[in-house]
Amino acid sequence: MVDHALDTFPRLLLHHAKVRGDKPAIREKDLGIWQTWSWSQVADEVRAFACGLAELGFKRGDNLAIIGDNRPRLYWAMTAAQCLGGVPVPLYQDAVAQEMAFVLENAEIRFAIVEDQEQVDKLLEIKGRCPQLQHILYDDPRGLRHYIQTEIQSLDEVMEMGRIHDRNHPDFLDGEIAEGRPEDVSVMLYTSGTTGQPKGVCQTHGAFITAAKTGCEFDRLGPDDEILSYLPMAWVGDHLFSYAQAIYAGFTINCPESGDTVMTDLREIGPTYYFAPPRVFENLLTQVMIRMEDAGAIKRWMFRYFTDVAKRCGAEILDRSPGVTAADRLLYALGNLFVYGPLRNVLGMSRIRVAYTAGAAIGPDLFRFYRSIAVNLKQLYGSTETCAAVCLQPDGQIKFDTVGPPAPGVEVRIADNGEVLVRGQVMLKEYYKRPDATAESIDDQGYFHTGDAGFFDPEGHLKIIDRAKDVGKLANGAMFAPNYIENKLKFFSYIREAVAFGHARDTVCAFVNIDMGAVGDWAERRNIAYSGYTDLAQKTEVYNLVLECVERCNAELALDPVLSHSQVRRFLILHKELDPDDDELTRTRKVRRGFIAQKYGVLIEALYSSKPSQFIETQVKFEDGRTGMISADLRIMDVKVFDAAAGKRAA
Fold first, then answer.
1. What pLDDT was estimated at residue 430?
2. Which domains does the chain have, with CATH numbers?
3. C-alpha dihedral sign at 536, 537, 542, 545
């Protein structure tokens, strides 16, 4: 338990350096070898880092941009800034230069710490637009030997300057840390900007430490736990799991070598604590299914037989339900020996005590599968403005269609219009330089308006339907919740993205993106030749495959008395994948609905006509900054729907 004096992250770091100084705090895989830093070593590195920043002129109230993959020195940069009373501002590392320019200007960034040459080049590209940017400090020196710009320096140089500064002024940093207060802003995380420019969410030390304390006590996380840190540092979930909770509880974070080696590194580390968005869990299962197709007949039979056993009773056994028969318990034990245990080992989940997913709805079948093989998977609900900590699912009370009851210390109520309102110590302090947005989001009773629509079930568990602003009505007055429909479509492994339309219209229609990996493998097994995404997406066989998924989605919607009128009547498969670089998705892969409706207006009108196809030509951006055009004649397919009362096909 952390006492009342340990109320900022620098003080928590010094506490761990004192009480468990030789225990591992962070690891990084570099050139195939895991490098480890203890808590005392991390404290020394952060001290040198902070003093080096101070030597360069970084001071209390300054904002520090941090850009790159999950790297130890980028995490240390956060604490170093906080030691000096500054505010770290992590940016999405895959953002293009122009996207970064807005944040750098808005946050008045003078200092930026970046991972490598790629990020240095982005900042140099927009330097003219951001004249206040004075220092670009890099971690990885590869490719930067001949850069002569005076604002560029290596972190090695800065940290050596810091060590000299610390020797000359040994009391300086301790004095700066002592000035820190729990109500000080500890981090600024920018929203995804689905409807406009991103906003800087200012969160305090007190808010994130409260969220970390709540989560750690709820799931009994402690110094012996380990997590793999691979999600963007600019995302609130990573900041909660890999930074706030790690520094609160004193557990170890592990940084993978690269995005391509995450699965290998996951198996090597075998974390006890894990987080991934639903798409990652889905991709893992898809890879397993693909590998099983190549297995021998006996292995395939065993896998099918014991996964059926797991679906029947695995989740109940994990929840310690007394209703499971002795015969099923015996079969499950055999399945654990021959199938579930080896499968968890392949997935790198052998040691996981608790796993979380959030960011989007997860399909009930996918949720049940992981819990059925003894992976204690839970759904988390929160937002950047609430430190990602609003609802938590208690062990033994997991429901597949809710996000659980409110977390301890968090108040949640439903407004008259169905919007979810939140109040508690985990709320944002303000939006940076946006008092208007702050006043609009927090009412006079202190409740934050999440923008999500939901309701409580009879047991007090919260169920999220959609974004409140997106919930509309069909022409007949029935509710239309596009995100709910899209998530149901994305539960199928062959569908990567979906965008539903229907507000103020008679029927619901949809765009679909196929999952290139899953559908490509499916096509290859059936000897269907294709030259790329656009070609594959328009194959008759692929349309029939997606049609089957959409009809199954309709059958499920027909059973919902509120959304039975929202069954999809027509769909098309887009000729290109929706892409953040084309402004169609945010960096967290949320649909920019308004932009898509405007960009593809001709396709929407074709869906609501009797046309069997529609020609479209679209501009796309390539990774090197060039633009090009993709054109195709897109097929439009009608879908049979189901009678809401009887669950039978109606048309």
1. 97
2. 9-275 (3.40.50.12780), 472-638 (3.30.300.30)
3. positive
